[in-house]
């Protein structure tokens, strides 16, 4: 059974009206609310976690500010974040005319660029060989040793604790 695509509501003929495309910005608002720090269209969202990577002496990456939070907690998981940016990029390639018709082309490009700019901070791109890669910022550790970003459902702007950074070595 063909259920169509997420952008099928953007008709390519004269039946497309402004009211039929108003829902699309609401779906990108969901992504914007997970963006950090404050460079988004969400009026109630402010700066958060501006010291990511700066306090952890064991890592070589000292600026891990940016990217998107995962789900409703305050962890940045690179795998789901990279999947989301990949899917948005493929949708842009496949449906560029529909993004243009909805007047969302530049907006979706900005969302993707924000995510990919963060990924460029997670490894040493000038090295001959990539042997270290940041894979997570924030902890989901349940041992009680570190602040747990899974259980810490506080306002993200109020996070003032040092956030752990998990790396993959020789990956």
Automatic annotation (TrEMBL):
Q: Which GO terms describe its biological process?
A: cellulose catabolic process
Keyword entries, A-Z? Carbohydrate metabolism, Cellulose degradation, Glycosidase, Hydrolase, Polysaccharide degradation
Q: Organism, per UniProt?
A: Forsythia ovata
Family that this chain belongs to: Belongs to the glycosyl hydrolase 9 (cellulase E) family.
Reported EC number(s) for this entry are: 3.2.1.4
> Which Gene Ontology molecular-function terms are recorded?
cellulase activity
What's its catalytic activity? Endohydrolysis of (1->4)-beta-D-glucosidic linkages in cellulose, lichenin and cereal beta-D-glucans
Where in the numbering of this chain does the Glycoside hydrolase family domain appear? 35-168
Q: Name one Pfam family in it.
A: Glyco_hydro_9
Q: What is this protein called?
A: cellulase
């Amino acid at each position: 059974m063909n259920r169509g695509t997420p952008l099928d509501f953007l008709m390519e003929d004269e039946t497309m009206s402004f009211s039929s495309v108003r829902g699309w910005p609401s779906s990108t608002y969901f992504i914007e609310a997970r963006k950090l720090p404050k460079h988004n269209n969400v009026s109630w969202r402010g700066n958060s976690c501006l010291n990511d990577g700066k306090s952890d002496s064991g890592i070589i990456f000292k600026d891990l500010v940016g990217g998107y939070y995962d789900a409703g907690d305050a962890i940045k998981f690179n795998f789901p974040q990279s999947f989301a940016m990949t899917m948005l990029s493929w949708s842009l390639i496949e449906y560029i005319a529909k993004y243009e018709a909805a007047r969302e082309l530049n907006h979706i490009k900005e969302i993707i660029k924000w995510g990919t700019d963060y990924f460029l901070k997670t490894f040493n791109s000038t090295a001959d060989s990539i042997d270290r890669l940041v894979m997570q910022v924030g902890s989901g550790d349940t041992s009680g040793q570190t602040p747990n970003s899974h259980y810490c459902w506080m306002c993200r702007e109020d996070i003032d604790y040092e956030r752990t950074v998990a790396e993959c070595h020789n990956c």
